[in-house]
Every structure is written in structure tokens, then in C-alpha cells.
Amino acid sequence: MLSVAALQAQVSFGVVAGPNFQNMTGKDADGDKVTNGLIVRFHAGVQAAIPISPDFSFQTGLLFSQKGSKNNEGLIPQKSANNEYNTTTCISYVELPLHLLFRPEFGSGRILVGFGPYVAYGIAGKQKVEMGSLSYEQKIKFKNEIEQSASWDMDHAYYRGFDAGADIYAGYEMAMGFFVRLNAQLGLLNMVSDIQDWDYEPTLRNTGFSLSAGYSF
């Protein structure tokens, strides 16, 4: 009981927030590589670090994080060749990071180096479509598989809800508890919903980086 109490006393909690610079990359229906445009959104949440040794901790938390891209053309991802057709997709996730944190002393503060997996689930989203003078907005629905008729749905765009991938970040924490860090993230799962009885399989994966500022209590 004393050991558990001592460990709990060392667990540090914190808050974190900052901008996301996100994209969705993958392959189109013909198997050609797709590189879309960045969007700038944000993330915010709480975190906890559980000490393993003097310089190593297990870090987790819960984040609200927005991701997406420009010009992914819905379910048939390819970068728009001209300005006549453009899309901007934004998906909001609840994200759980699972990181190993290396936190050695440096000067009056500590260097931060973290890496590990993350899991996330989409809770809301929208996709703006612009075709010449026509512009409309679609609400995002999360489904692993849809019928062919849904691919022509003007009111909704369809993506998979579950996402997972890998994180790596580096930063610095001051003695007072304030910290900054740069994070890179690579999604490993295809976010495009399968269409029943369609032969092609386009892919889109979340990727990007973020800047974070926060405070550890």
C-alpha cells in the first residue's frame, strides 16, 4: 500500500493544446500515389505520465484532435487537377496516445523525447465540396462499408471511424512545468469506407505534425 501511494504521488498530470498540420495520403483507384493539401486545425486535452525509472515514464492521456486534408475528392482520392473541383475534409477524433517518454535533466529543465502508438475514433466531421460556382457541405458518417448508392449521397461523406498509428515527438520542459514539443504522426489504417461490389480500393491515411504547448502539474 505504501508503494502504491508513493507511485501515485509521483504521477504527473498536465494539459496540452496546439495546432495540427494534417493531410491524408494514399493511393487512388488506379493505384497511383496521392498527395493532398494540408489543413490547419487544432488539438487539446489532458495527459498523465507514470514514472518507470528516474528518466523514463509511460505517458497517456485523452485528446480532442482534428484531422483531414484538402482535395481528396471524397471516396475516389486523387488531387484535383484544376480549380473546378475542390474538397476540404475535417474529421474530429477522440485520441488515446500510449507513449514511452524519455525525460532526462538538461539545464534547469528536462528534454522530452516520446514515441509509441495511438488509437483514435471519429466523433464528428464535415466535408466541403466546391465545383465551379456550386458549393455544398456534407456531414461525415462513420462506416466501414457502404452500399454503392451511398457513394452518390450529396448530404453525407463516408469514412471509417477507427484510426491507429504511430507518434514520435521531441520537446523541452522548463523547471516550472511549462513545456513545448513538436510531434509527427503517421496513421496506419485506411480511412476510406469499402463500397459493396466495387473492385477498386482507394486508400487514405491520416498523416501530419503538430506543435504543442502545455503545463505539467
What does this structure look like?
The protein is mainly β and 217 residues long. The chain has a single domain, classed as Porin (Beta Barrel), CATH 2.40.160.20. The protein contains 1 helix and 14 strands. Strands 1-3-4-5-7-11-12-14 form an 8-stranded antiparallel barrel. A two-stranded parallel sheet has the order 9-13. Strand 11 and strand 12 form a beta hairpin. The radius of gyration is 20 Å and the shape is elongated. The two termini are 24 Å apart.
Task: Give the helix/strand layout.
Blueprint: H1 2-10, E1 12-27, E2 33-35, E3 39-51, E4 56-70, E5 85-102, E6 105-106, E7 109-131, E8 134-142, E9 145-146, E10 156-159, E11 162-173, E12 178-187, E13 194-195, E14 203-216
Parallel strand pairs: 8-10, 9-13
Antiparallel strand pairs: 1-2, 1-3, 1-14, 3-4, 4-5, 5-7, 6-7, 7-8, 7-11, 11-12, 12-14
Low-pLDDT runs: 74-80
Query: In total, how many domains does the architecture comprise?
Result: 1
* Strand fraction: over 45%
Q: What is the oligomer described by this structure?
A: single chain
In the sheet with the most strands, the strands line up as 1-3-4-5-7-11-12-14
Give me the Rg, rounded.
20 Å
Number of strands: 14
CATH fold group = Porin
Count of helical stretches: 1
The ordered H/E elements are HEEEEEEEEEEEEEE
Backbone structural class: mainly beta
Instruction: Bin the helical content.
Output: under 10%
Overall pLDDT score: 88
- Report the CATH C-level class: Mainly Beta
